């Protein structure tokens, strides 16, 4: 299990473990782990270590001492910019400072100019930072980012909120890291929102703390192990009815492509039969994928099909009527796009959704989530985990809050952050394909929670597969995703 710990949870673990260890043990272990990571990144000799006023600065001083100590075989030229602040350092940091000063490291009072650094170690601020970086520190961070050199961040890139993945402050700055070595436990903010851009490659250093010494984490990183019980090769003795029906309802005038994208997502990830029930019928057949059966939404009998409602659906009377009928029914349900906007505008529909016996999957992007919650998209993005939890609780649904590091939450408070996917998914129709994959897995008998986390993982992995093959991320299209998703799902099943 890939646990993700909040700052409060990490502090609790630190306090508990520190009581059973000699003073400064965790800081020394952090310094050793980070120094090893730094050596792995070095392609030259010149290392700049930035050490701030707190214990994160102490970690950085330990790194400097380890890299520049006489006992090392590495001939690194270590320069330390130590910014102690106005308060006295902790005893652990004071000991690390003494070690660093006794080493071969050179201490400076300002950022040296004109040096071609092989590596910069960011130990300015750790997980405890609660205010925006400003003044001289802000100028320093901006100067470091402008250098464009490899950066190893300690615990979390300075200026990034470890809980939310937001850069602290409305106009804040954060260190742009190449790699982040995070201590004791992984942090949610490194894997969602701006964290995925600022943290770079994330490496966990547990500092010798046994998993059994950690309490259950409040969030997890998505992985196939979380939905593995549904992954198995298909039996030969199967037929199309073995894998369920999916009906995609949407497609107002001029929006016929959206439900087709969802339908192809469902078809290529294994649904037995797939229908498009169009609000404004656009044709009798999908000439690209004729296996998809076209129907008129106004008189379509969905039977036992799983319903995917919303792609390109619009806000007509017909759309509202179809949505109301679906909410009143007992079918497995995926709600996306225009269906979510209609629900956001109607407390009655919100209540009907929350009272359904069968748990629905809802797949909002941040603006749709904001409409449902009655806040701004900035509020949603400011704490994506909290927004997804709140929305899941209100709607009694599994919520897929899309975006960089998609967040999946259920009404019981469980939260998973998805690590797959790339910028190629920022394209029209990508969300429609995801909704279709959710519907497909539901139709095949997956439970809503596992269908949601499985669909999100497969959808992102499909985009990663395409990029690895040279298709994207620039110019990647939603139409390429279903075939790639099929390959990913079959590989998992094997």
From TrEMBL:
(6S)-NADPHX binds at residues 55-59, 126-132, 155, 258, 312, 365, 432. AMP binds at residues 402-406, 431. It catalyses: (6R)-NADHX = (6S)-NADHX; (6S)-NADHX + ADP = AMP + phosphate + NADH + H(+); (6R)-NADPHX = (6S)-NADPHX; (6S)-NADPHX + ADP = AMP + phosphate + NADPH + H(+). K(+) binds at residues 56, 122, 158. Pfam families: Carb_kinase, YjeF_N. Its cofactor is K(+); Mg(2+). Its EC number is 4.2.1.136, 5.1.99.6. Residues 5-215 form the YjeF N-terminal domain. The keyword DNA damage does not apply. Binds 1 potassium ion per subunit. InterPro entries: CARKD (IPR000631), Nnr (IPR030677), Ribokinase-like (IPR029056), YjeF_N_dom (IPR004443), YjeF_N_dom_sf (IPR036652). NCBIfam families: yjeF_cterm (TIGR00196), yjeF_nterm (TIGR00197). Belongs to the NnrE/AIBP family. In the C-terminal section; belongs to the NnrD/CARKD family. Catalyzes the dehydration of the S-form of NAD(P)HX at the expense of ADP, which is converted to AMP. Together with NAD(P)HX epimerase, which catalyzes the epimerization of the S- and R-forms, the enzyme allows the repair of both epimers of NAD(P)HX, a damaged form of NAD(P)H that is a result of enzymatic or heat-dependent hydration. Bifunctional enzyme that catalyzes the epimerization of the S- and R-forms of NAD(P)HX and the dehydration of the S-form of NAD(P)HX at the expense of ADP, which is converted to AMP. This allows the repair of both epimers of NAD(P)HX, a damaged form of NAD(P)H that is a result of enzymatic or heat-dependent hydration. PANTHER family: ATP-DEPENDENT (S)-NAD(P)H-HYDRATE DEHYDRATASE, ATP-DEPENDENT (S)-NAD(P)H-HYDRATE DEHYDRATASE FAMILY MEMBER. Homotetramer. This is Bifunctional NAD(P)H-hydrate repair enzyme. The gene is nnrE.
């Amino acid at each position: 299990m890939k646990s993700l710990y909040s700052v409060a949870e990490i502090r609790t673990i630190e306090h508990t473990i520190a009581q059973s260890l000699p003073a400064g043990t965790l800081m020394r272990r952090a310094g050793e782990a980070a120094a090893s990571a730094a050596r792995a990144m070095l392609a030259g000799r010149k290392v700049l270590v930035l050490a701030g006023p707190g214990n994160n600065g102490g970690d950085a001083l330990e790194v400097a001492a380890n890299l520049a100590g006489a006992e090392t075989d590495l001939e690194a030229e270590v320069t330390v910019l130590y910014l102690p602040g106005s308060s006295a350092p902790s005893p652990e940091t004071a000991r690390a400072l003494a070690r660093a000063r006794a080493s071969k490291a050179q201490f400076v009072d300002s950022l040296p100019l004109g040096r071609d650094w092989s590596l910069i170690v960011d130990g300015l601020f750790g997980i405890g930072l609660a205010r925006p970086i400003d003044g001289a520190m802000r100028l320093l961070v901006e100067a470091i980012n402008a250098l464009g050199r490899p950066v190893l961040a300690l615990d979390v890139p300075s200026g990034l909120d470890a809980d939310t993945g937001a850069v602290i402050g409305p106009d804040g700055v954060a260190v742009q890291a190449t790699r982040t070595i995070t201590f004791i436990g992984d942090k949610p903010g490194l894997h969602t929102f701006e964290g995925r851009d600022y943290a770079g490659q994330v490496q966990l250093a547990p500092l010798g703390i046994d998993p059994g010494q950690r309490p259950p984490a409040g969030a997890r990183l998505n992985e196939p192990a979380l939905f593995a019980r549904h992954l198995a090769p298909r039996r030969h003795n199967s037929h199309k009815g073995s894998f369920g029906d999916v009906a995609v309802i949407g497609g107002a005038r001029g929006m016929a492509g959206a439900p087709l994208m969802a339908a192809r997502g469902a078809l290529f990830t294994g649904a037995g039969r797939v229908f498009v029930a169009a609000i404004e019928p656009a044709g009798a057949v999908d000439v690209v994928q004729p296996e998809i059966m076209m129907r008129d939404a106004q008189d379509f009998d969905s039977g036992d099909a799983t319903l995917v409602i919303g792609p390109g659906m619009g806000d007509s009377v017909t759309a509202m009527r179809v949505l109301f009928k679906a909410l009143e029914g007992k079918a497995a349900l995926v709600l996306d796009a225009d269906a979510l906007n209609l629900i956001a505008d109607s407390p009655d529909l919100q209540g009907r959704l929350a009272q359904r016996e069968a748990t629905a999957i809802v797949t909002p992007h941040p603006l749709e989530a904001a409409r449902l919650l009655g806040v701004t998209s900035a509020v949603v993005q400011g704490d994506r985990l909290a927004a997804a939890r709140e929305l899941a609780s209100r709607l009694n649904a599994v919520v897929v809050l899309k975006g960089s590091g998609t967040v999946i939450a259920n009404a019981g408070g469980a939260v998973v952050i998805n690590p797959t996917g790339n910028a190629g998914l920022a394209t029209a129709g990508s969300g429609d394909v995801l909704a279709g994959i959710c519907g497909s897995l539901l139709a095949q008998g997956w439970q809503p929670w596992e269908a949601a986390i499985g669909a999100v993982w497969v959808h992102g992995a499909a985009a990663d597969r395409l990029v690895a093959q040279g298709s994207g991320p620039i110019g990647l299209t939603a139409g390429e995703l279903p075939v790639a998703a099929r390959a990913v799902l079959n590989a998992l099943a094997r």
